[in-house]
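Q: How would the structure tokens look for this protein?
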Amino acid sequence: MRIISGRNRGQHIQTLKGTQLRPTSDQMRETLFDVLGPRVQGSVFLDAYAGSGAVGLEALSRGAKEVVFVEHHRAATDLIRRNLAALKMEDGFYLMNARVLAALERLDEEGAIFDFIFLDPPYSETREYHQVLRQLGRSRLLTDASFVIADRAKDRW
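A: Here is the predicted structure in token form.
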């Protein structure tokens, strides 16, 4: 996998082999960020169920002011840390090793507000989608101008 555009364009990032992680493909990330366009520049971005961190790393490369990565698997959190270091990204991010619902609650209590929230839970966790979306609806993490992007299997819901 590689960073598609921005200051880290073309640089490779690692993924975990032999796990249940489903990294967001280069093509999907390119399409996503083409749609979001220049709004990413200076934004605050949440990469929930971050896995390898590919989406959040792409946002940072494209000029996001801050990215919060949320991932509860320790091996994936360590991988994100390694990818950040390999890309020489030293600031503008916050890495949370926590379950997404707990992280959202904590971020809400801290007064965080996001321009973009990217959700990519395991496809088999349909219930998780609904719980997270309900929690976001009750939270103060979003403004009227915020975007929530949810990746899901096309045969679910």
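Helices lie at 26-36, 54-61, 74-86, 100-109, 126-138.

The radius of gyration is 14 Å.

Upvote if useful.
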